[in-house]
Write a structure and sequence with these properties.
With 270 residues, the protein is of the alpha/beta class. The chain is built from ten helices and six strands, in the order E-H-E-H-H-H-E-H-H-E-H-E-H-H-E-H. This is Enoyl-[acyl-carrier-protein] reductase [NADH].
Amino acid sequence: MSYNLLKGKRGIIFGALDEKSIAWKVAMRAHEEGAEFVLTNAPIAMRMGEINKLAEHCNAQIIPADATSVEDLENLFTQAQEILGGKIDFVLHSIGMSPNIRKGKSYGDLNYEWFLKTLDISAISFHKVMHVAEKQDAMSEWGSIVALSYIAAQRVFPDYTDMSHAKAVLESIARNYGYRLGRAKKVRVNTVSQSPTKTTAGTGVGGFDAFFEYADKMSPLGNAPADACADYCVTLFSDLTRYVTMQNLMHDGGFSTMGISEDIVEMISK
């Protein structure tokens, strides 16, 4: 069901890869709610994914951009405003990648050059996005910027290795830039800490199936699916959440508040 929550709004959505990705779901919902937006991803990711199919469905143009490149981001924001005919009302940062995880490196055996790449791609890119948006004065007043995070920023998940640090940095950047953009343009900046989700990136983490099941049994509502996360992001882009900023918002079925659940006790008892 559509409520026209984003009618007349313009956006940029980073990170849509395929139908499993949360960014893909967000784009679909934003389109349903009346938004116009451009899609963007790194050129290498675009070759791996199906973004053209999404663009056709949403009547959106694609602008390739490496989010770690300030030059690419400058081009992205310039072109996006030209294509959409005005300043940007919302941005989704759905970017995360760890070479250490991809190569199966344990936490005690990280390749430090790869660690820096993890931080640059998954967290510092968020700062660069907002840096460019600020310098170009590209955001509308009362705009909304959202990045996707995970509770490993606060808790230990051994197989999440250096991505846990990237998410912690991501959330810190959201708070600090949220203050800056809030004072300057009343732009709000938040992170959404999503349940384990069966995306291409998520399932690449070692032991994913185990902690997906664990989180599902711990959460009174169960794991929040990608479609529900898209709904939540749409509300954060809308005018209904104008005074929500600098927050890390848990979208996890209650997992983050639980100590232990009856399902886990029963599982252990067996």
